Amino acid sequence: MSQIITKLDDLFQARREEIEEWLHKKRTKKPPFFYSSVDLRHSGVRIAPVDTNLFPAGFNNLSPAARDRSINLMHDRLEAMKPVPKKILIIPENHTRNLAYIENLFVLSGLISETGREVRIGSLTATEPLSLQSMNENTVMEFPLIRTNNRISTSDGFEPDLIILNNDCTAGAPEILIGIKQPIEPSYHMGWYTRRKSEHFRAYTQITREFAEKFNFDPWLISAGFHRCGVVNFHERVGIECVALGVEKVLHTMRQKYEEYGVTEKPYVFVKADSGTYGMGIMTVGSSDELLELNKKTRNKMNTIKEGTQNTEVIIQEGIPTIDVVEGAPAEAMVYLVDGVPVGGAYRINSERDANSNLNAAGMRFVGMCDESECAESAREKIKIPGCNFNVFGLVSTLAALAAANEVYDSLDIGFSI
Amino acid sequence: MSQIITKLDDLFQARREEIEEWLHKKRTKKPPFFYSSVDLRHSGVRIAPVDTNLFPAGFNNLSPAARDRSINLMHDRLEAMKPVPKKILIIPENHTRNLAYIENLFVLSGLISETGREVRIGSLTATEPLSLQSMNENTVMEFPLIRTNNRISTSDGFEPDLIILNNDCTAGAPEILIGIKQPIEPSYHMGWYTRRKSEHFRAYTQITREFAEKFNFDPWLISAGFHRCGVVNFHERVGIECVALGVEKVLHTMRQKYEEYGVTEKPYVFVKADSGTYGMGIMTVGSSDELLELNKKTRNKMNTIKEGTQNTEVIIQEGIPTIDVVEGAPAEAMVYLVDGVPVGGAYRINSERDANSNLNAAGMRFVGMCDESECAESAREKIKIPGCNFNVFGLVSTLAALAAANEVYDSLDIGFSI
């Protein structure tokens, strides 16, 4: 096990009850979202979330044990709602040709069905029912949506009590959902048209600092430092000098920390859109000069993110090289959570990239992860992922899910009266 | 005195030392910016900041006593710097024809001179020295800037130790300043190209909540509640439904609070750009229907803010009608702070508007405010501003200045180690 995994696993074993209690308190104070997935980067010295998705796909990558845990947690969450929803509509991304995404929908709807509910899958774009084949040749039906008196139903007459959103709303709140009476989880307000990475990592830094103070370690070990820039247009070359300066600032801090921890690698950063991306518009930068010398092709790429939204604000985040290798390729762990509790995960691997790269790019694929019940020495042997430790991955991911619950709040959310 | 002024004045008189200590502690933890001005709205039941400017103009509106306090606080702040700056360059807005702004520059440079320093005024756009006449026929010289080896000087050979920025950088960081060696206060990073009102009010809500809990009153009495929306384009009618929903949400909360406090007026909200404006792009809305019925002219107006920046994100803020009347016109107090300490203020009055309106619009003018030494019964009589209470205005504004110091932080600002 790596230095940081050992350290956190020791902490977890020694003070498990205290940790669980601390996390439970936080969950009670500000309930986590229905589900989420957290991308982790692990360098041996540190492990940190680098992206937290509130409309996760990839449930099909979860192990049987992880699926069981998901069902139980979904069940408890749904039963705690008032009134308890019996009929559930999933509203997915408009990816009718992405076979892996269809597989995710098949599994996700199956998990919710297993909680004892009726489930239907809607579609924001379909004009007639669609029968879609998944990667593993399962069939998924998607139904057009109908809005009547501020309630949504599907074209086959299904009237849900609750909508589970599995669409990250990069282009804005889906018009048909705005102001409807049925509850939506997570709300489209958490879509990427409002969310910002900088607000997520601000909240993460805050919670991590608290946690690390309580349990007495350096929060840098579980965080990727970041700096937020203002408006940038790479295409027009506006604001690039300011990003270059931010890059220097982040690299400077990294050098100090690397010296403190005896890390000999060359520090580098990721420059990415402050609003969500689909793995596009992410740049790896080792010095500010690289930024100033950007060629036109790269500048255009940085300006294009999912569905053509213009890339106008960026954050600079410490790059954490991944030491995890699965099937001979660089890999990064993704942890899935339901109701803020880790249920399992998968490794994203990409043989076309190296240990410093963003792996969420062309060439990626997923393999299952060891999880709590599968992390016995024998299982770990079997899947050959030496660094895999679900206690530690789960702990760091839980902090990220708690941060997500705290990241966007306005005064109405936190309430005024004392 | 109004209900809220009486309440807070009583609190201030009774627990002044405790309050000062609490504020001092906060100032020490996160130093406030060099200067700021805070726009307040006061309805009788409540008083709240609605805008906090980190590059304030209007120093010419301050009373002699307020100017003296400014000099003392600027002096102490500058003397505490290492090394102590002796030569100071002010970098102003590019408003060479705004006679009131030139008057502000004349006064501001005079205040800094009085701290015993040499002062020069630069210009981001001038290509030769400009001699400008102010409103009161004072002469102000502005000099072109020259950058050599990452240091700035003026065309007449003045090499400053410190730059005081008096330009709110709506259009971005001034290129000539990026990465220079001399310190800049406040940093261009606090320009409106990065700042967001929602982050300011998030920080304000947080600090106000703490303060009100400590001193046992409802923080709503000193806050204007808000809600942040995602990307909106009024011109293209994108996202307006979502704003309408936010308006309903804010109005709903207001109705509850109005009932609690027996306020019988009809609640209304301001819809404004989340990035700074120059009093443009602000809308008064009493119901979400008004938003949906916006005509084309208003939509275009909402999309145009200072220097043509596109209006893409909005906040919805509780409207606080002003009960203050000066010279027969609706008025709102503005408080000036140096180093986070209130020094004085002015009233913005606008006889072309009513008590519900945004007064920062065509027709506005300024009159001096009573301040600490001028708030004796006699002075108050003289300037006929019955609600004026500098203790209370100063207290609320200090909380806003402290919020500004906390509003933009990334992980590098707050540091990682414990």
Describe this structure in words.
Two copies of one chain form a homodimer. With 418 residues, the first copy, chain A, is an alpha+beta fold. Chain A folds into three domains: 3-54 and 323-409, no CATH class; 66-190, Rossmann fold (3-Layer(aba) Sandwich); 225-318, 2-Layer Sandwich (Dna Ligase, domain 1), CATH 3.30.1490. Chain A is built from ten helices and 17 strands. In chain A, β5 and β6 form a beta hairpin. In chain A, α1 (3-29) packs parallel to α9 (390-407) and α4 crosses α9 (390-407).
Order of helices and strands of chain A: HEEHEHEEEEEEHEHEEHHEEEEEHHH
N- and C-termini, Cα separation of chain A: 47 Å
Seen as an oligomer or otherwise, the chain set is homodimer
Number of contiguous helices of chain A: 10
Largest interface: A-B, 49 and 50 residues
The total count of strands of chain A amounts to: 17
Annotate the secondary structure layout.
The structure is a homodimer of 418-residue chains.
Chain A: H1 3-29, E1 35-42, E2 47-53, H2 64-79, E3 87-92, H3 99-114, E4 118-123, E5 130-133, E6 139-148, E7 151-154, E8 162-166, E9 184-185, H4 197-215, E10 226-231, H5 240-261, E11 269-273, E12 283-285, H6 288-292, H7 296-302, E13 313-318, E14 325-326, E15 329-338, E16 341-350, E17 364-368, H8 377-383, H9 390-407, H10 411-414
Helix pairs in contact in A: 1-9, 4-9
Throw out a few tags for this protein.
alpha+beta; 418 residues; Rossmann fold; 7-stranded mixed sheet; 34% helix; 6-stranded antiparallel sheet; globular; Dna Ligase, domain 1; homodimer; 17 strands
State the gist of this model.
Two copies of one chain form a homodimer. Chain A has 418 residues and is of the alpha+beta class. Helices cover 34% and strands 24% of the residues of chain A.
